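Students often ask why inverse folding is considered easier than folding. One informal answer: many sequences map to the same fold, so there is more than one right answer. In these notes we will look at a single instance of the problem. The structure comes first.
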């Protein structure tokens, strides 16, 4: 990755997505190597006659999935998946794994050429050959993109409310692990990085 500021995008906006968006948004503002604006892909829904993305972007709260928790003002809800991923250097996947196949097809090639991915999805997939790791699904769906994982015994509400939590990133490449540490580490969300993606996942 060159000297240009790195664009971070969050693919997913449920309770875990919003909890992690609080930390990611604050860290992207704090670290000068990241663009301030973090786009978060939101599956558009109508809530009491208003678009959910409009509510998030004006009130900075996902009233459906994380009511009462304010998101940083640099988190921008985007209903268009391709627009959310376009130009991203870091793609954070935090959504039900059954949607991954179609999502990867839609965004493959829209991101920056040196983009990396990280999965926060706590699941495994089964195909006709047996178990498939979610990080492998993402890697294969995005033409071999390096995909790390973030896993821990974390509850979304605890993370969002600022309770002290610990988690682990599994990353194959040391420089990607260092970058992801800056994206996620926080005084109340302590991140350790290890060189073991399958073990962490």
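Output (designed amino acids):
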């Amino acid at each position: 990755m060159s000297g240009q500021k790195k664009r971070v995008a969050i693919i997913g906006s449920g309770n875990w997505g919003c909890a992690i968006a609080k930390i990611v948004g604050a860290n992207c503002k704090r670290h000068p190597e990241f663009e301030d604006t973090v786009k978060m892909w939101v599956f558009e829904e109508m809530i009491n006659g208003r678009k959910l993305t409009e509510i998030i972007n004006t009130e900075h709260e996902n009233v459906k999935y994380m009511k009462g928790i304010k998101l940083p003002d640099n988190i921008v809800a985007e209903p268009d998946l391709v627009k959310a991923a376009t130009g991203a250097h870091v793609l954070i996947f935090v959504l039900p794994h059954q949607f991954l196949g179609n999502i990867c097809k839609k965004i493959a090639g829209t991101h920056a050429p040196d983009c990396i991915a990280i999965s926060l999805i706590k699941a495994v997939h089964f195909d006709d050959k047996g178990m498939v790791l979610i990080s492998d699904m993402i890697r294969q769906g995005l033409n071999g993109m390096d995909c790390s994982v973030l896993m821990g015994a974390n509850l979304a509400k605890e993370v969002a409310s600022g309770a002290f939590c610990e988690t682990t990133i599994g990353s194959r490449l040391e420089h990607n692990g260092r970058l992801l540490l800056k994206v996620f580490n926080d005084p109340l969300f302590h991140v350790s990085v290890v060189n073991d993606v399958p073990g962490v996942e």
